[in-house]
UniProtKB/TrEMBL annotation:
Pfam families: HTH_30 (PF13556). It comes from the Bacteria. InterPro entries: Homeodomain-like_sf, PucR_C-HTH_dom, PucR_C-HTH_sf. It comes from Pseudolactococcus piscium. This is Regulator. Residues 201-241 form the PucR C-terminal helix-turn-helix domain.
Length: 254
């Protein structure tokens, strides 16, 4: 599809909508785009939704009453992963494939459900054993009646690479008017070294040994980098400060 030609006729915007339920979203050449439904006629909305950018509909209303969790998975090896999921997680009732590399597993709440940490560890082991790459999003448990609405929100979080907590923090920061916060954010925008340091520490749960290994540097070098950052920014690279800094980078990136 030629995006340039589409942009001449319709209000196409690049990126992810802050209100996915009020937008037509689609992907082209690996890039995300959207059009606000308020900018389109009913006929145009129908055309884009049911013909051009149609996706397989998740039929949550067909589930029996109960409490469910949605596990979104994205991988070029999705079919191979899906084959093993039900064997590993007996609480899954179905795996719905939405695209060649994306689908949603639906898990019903029971006493046999794994804790989130156990689920993450098991999925990481599965990917490693199969020798495949992939990403996933573990949703929260919701009543069947609200699954459709919650899916749209969790899908948006997954597309942005945000966890539930990160999405809330990001939304909250956007509403805050703080001069010191604005200064820090602007400085981070041009400080690629600081951005890498924040991301690696956050992704490795502040474990300095793992972070140093991920950055291919000695642990003492990492310690010096952290001290330098704290002198420059007045914030530590641990706890709530690290969460705040990582959220600021996400806002700058997305």
């Amino acid at each position: 599809m030629k995006i340039a030609a589409l942009e001449k006729i319709f209000p196409v915007k690049k990126g992810l909508s802050d209100q996915p339920e009020s937008a037509i979203t689609f992907t082209n050449d690996g890039e995300q785009y959207y059009m606000n439904k308020s900018d389109l006629t009913p006929r145009e909305i129908s055309l884009f939704s049911t013909v051009l950018f149609a996706t397989k509909e998740m039929k949550f209303d067909q589930l029996s009453p109960g409490v469910y969790r949605l596990i979104q998975l994205k991988s070029d090896s999705f079919d191979e992963i899906a084959e093993h999921l039900s064997l590993i997680f007996p609480t899954l009732i179905t795996v719905e494939k939405q695209a060649s590399d994306y689908g949603v597993a639906i898990e019903k709440l029971s006493s046999d459900c794994l804790y989130e940490s156990e689920m993450k560890q098991t999925l990481a082991t599965l990917f490693q054993d199969l020798g495949v790459d992939g990403t996933y999003y573990l949703g929260m448990f919701y009543d069947q009646a609200v699954l459709a609405d919650r899916y749209q929100l969790e899908k948006s979080n997954f597309e942005q690479g945000l966890t539930f907590s990160e999405a809330l923090i990001k939304a909250g920061i956007k509403q805050v008017s703080s001069h010191p916060l604005s200064i820090i954010k602007q400085r981070l925008l041009t400080d690629s070294e600081a951005q890498e340091l924040i991301k690696k520490l956050y992704q490795n749960d502040s474990n300095q040994l793992k972070t140093a290994k991920a950055m291919f540097i000695h642990r003492n070098t990492l310690t010096q980098k952290m001290k330098k950052f704290e002198r420059q920014y007045g914030l530590t690279l641990t706890g709530s400060d690290l969460v705040l800094l990582y959220s600021l980078i996400n806002i700058a990136d997305k």
